[in-house]
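User: Show me sequence and structure for the first protein, then do the same for the second.

Assistant: Starting with the first protein.
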Amino acid sequence: MSELVYGTYILVWPALTLGVLAVICSAVVKDALQARKSDSDMV
């Protein structure tokens, strides 16, 4: 039973990391497109 819990715990972290990375990347792409549309710099 404890192996199942540990295995699930270890496998959840890559999924959470991938989700956070996807949110960050989509926000950057959205900001880049918005900056290109309004002819302004991202920084």
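Switching to the second protein now.
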Amino acid sequence: MKKSIAIMCAGGPAPGINTVVSTVAKAFLKEGYRVLGVHYGYKGLLSDEVPIKEFDFYHADRIFSRGGSTLIMSRFKPKDSDFTTTFFEENNVKLLVTIGGDDTASTANRLMKFLKGKGMDISNIHVPKTIDNDLPLPGRNPTFGFHSAKDEGVKIGNTLYEDARTTEMWYLMSSMGRSAGHLAFGIGTACHFPMIIIPEMFNKTKPTVEKIIQLMISSIVKRQINGVYYGVIIISEGVFHAIPENEIIDAGIQFTYDAHGHPELGNVSKANFFNVILQEKLRELGLDIKTRPNDAGYELRCCRPIGFDLTLCSLLGIGVKKLFNEGISGCIVSADAEGNISPVYLSDHEDENGKVIPRLVDMNAEIAHLFFNNLDFITESDYESAAKYVTDPQLFDFHKILNWS
């Protein structure tokens, strides 16, 4: 039977998925392999009738620069009891290429152990994907899709900023990034936003709704002092998820709840959540300032990859073939700044509970110091001027809010 490889994608989309799929397919088609694309992630891979797309050169060549994914994705996470050898045996699969985050890679490791226990010698190489840029790749190299998503976010951010300037209004923009603020930081710095709020900045105090609103007002008032009556504030969704659940519930926002009684935070507009509370606080302070919410999330995930990611994803796809030829399995394929391919193992980056430690924005790095110190916010030297707008300016002192010295 002709040898084959299988490719599947799991989790959420990221720009460059099709580039990886196309490159891997072309590389193995040249060697005479069948290339089987599996729809619906692990749900499809482990079903009785596996939904596949068999690649030829023309399909692979057609998709390499497109956004989205030619393979339908799923977040299904199988139990060990769901594992089966059928698809791998029937198609003489020699390599499973998984594209996704750390959960996808961890599941692949479990599946490979199961197959090995059944006497099957199948390799697995994982291509890490997330627009959050929070996987611990060596040299802090970016995850594929991050720069394309950031670029799309910058287009949105620049348009919002132009609207804010044109109408003398404030926008509150949220961005994806469940645990790390790379995307919000990247968009905010590129767009010259006066305030950027990410979870990593709360490194000396715990984030609360009150502190977040104080940071926003600090920026608004600072610009008022300087005669500037507009701006855009960007906040990473990771800040929202870092706030204690009871505080979110007590904020007075309407939620839907899951079967366990927890608020379904994914159904909530993060920008709208904070904007409603910000408006209430501005009215309480007697400040007549318009603010509007805008979420930048799903529209970033399936945009066309920019040149950086087209090159990176092509390199990673070729890197899959390189590692496979070298007999390496059970790893993540990684490329450094010089373009060298190397395997990375998740076990080297797990905590004591086996959870991959996310890569965060380094608040000690010079880039963070420079950009955060260049934002617009109230400091002690502004107290006299700020008193015209707020009765207690020190409550809106950026460094005091964050407990930064």
